[in-house]
Amino acid sequence: MSHKLICADWLDAGRTAFDAAQDVSDGYYACAFADPPDNTGLEYDGYDDNLEPDDYFELLSKWFERLIRITGISWISYNAKWTAEVGAIVRDLCRSAPDLKTRHMIHTYSFGQHNNHDLGGGYRPIWRLRWKDAPLYPDQIRIESKRQRMGDKRANSAGRVPSDVFDFPRVVGNSKQRRSWHKTQLNEGLVERCIKLSTKEGDRVLDPFAGTGTVLRVCRKIGRLSTSFEISPSYCEKIAEENGMGALEVDSPHAFLRCQACAGRIVKSTNENFVTCENGCGRITPLLGQIPTYASF
């Protein structure tokens, strides 16, 4: 199975993200690219983007902690207004995990957000959290160097490895990448560079906040496998339709259905209109409305 899309909160879908990954995928990801909600009051489908600051900080902490448990390399893009809070989270993670190596980067864009009262926003911070034995593949992201463009004979014919400042345009309304049914998107070029630096062909990549399915699209393009979580059924349906993904049967070993009472695995009952918890409380519930899992092969 090449790509999976699970309509669930990756933290709260009955089990922890680590246990869910063991059931749904290979139990470990070479890389994750996470673009969590910014808590700036945007109107997402199925998610409250206006939490109290302390509640959002607690949620950010949980997201970071889960990511490093199940991935070799995690990339997290976040809003600059939370720089101090995210820095404190990363500091604490490094103190508890000395083998965790961090690097802070920025995503810049020339067409930023205009502000008549102060400096406009022109970047997003990105943290890369990498276990020391997780490999990097810099040759996969080489770009044309200035010397090459100038015809300098000293130029390396393979190009140069780009810097830790990623210059990719924002995905605005007139962008060919834009999916108008979602509030925000990151540039596919940015996501591709991060994933290529962190993986080789055939590796599996985690996207905990699928949004419009950017990570899935990039993985299809560059030959990686992807597992994406998205809390909104509406967004999932749109991603699945665009990428030719079909819904799995309830009793498929790759389906992500959990009993709401005890988190046991759900399977079909004798009556196909219902499902039952097979290894927990035995609760029987209607099939209609159960969380779907989509996949492409």
Description:
This protein is of the alpha/beta class and 297 residues long. The protein has two domains: 242 residues, 3-Layer(aba) Sandwich (Rossmann fold), CATH 3.40.50; 52 residues, no CATH class. The protein is 25% helix and 26% strand. The protein is built from seven helices and 15 strands. A ten-stranded mixed β-sheet has the order 8-6-7-5-2-9-10-1-15-11. The chain has a three-stranded antiparallel β-sheet with strand order 12-13-14, with no helix packed on it. α2 crosses α3 and α5 crosses α6. The longest helix has 18 residues. The protein is globular and about 70 Å long.
- Sheet having the most strands: 10 strands, mixed
- Alpha plus pi helix count: 7
**If you average the pLDDT, what whole number results?**
85
- Detail the poorly predicted runs: 14-26
What is the CATH level 1 assignment of the largest domain?
Answer: Alpha Beta
| Side-by-side strand order of the widest sheet | 8-6-7-5-2-9-10-1-15-11
Shape category: globular
Tell me the name of the CATH homologous superfamily of the largest domain.
Vaccinia Virus protein VP39
What number of structural domains do the residues give?
2
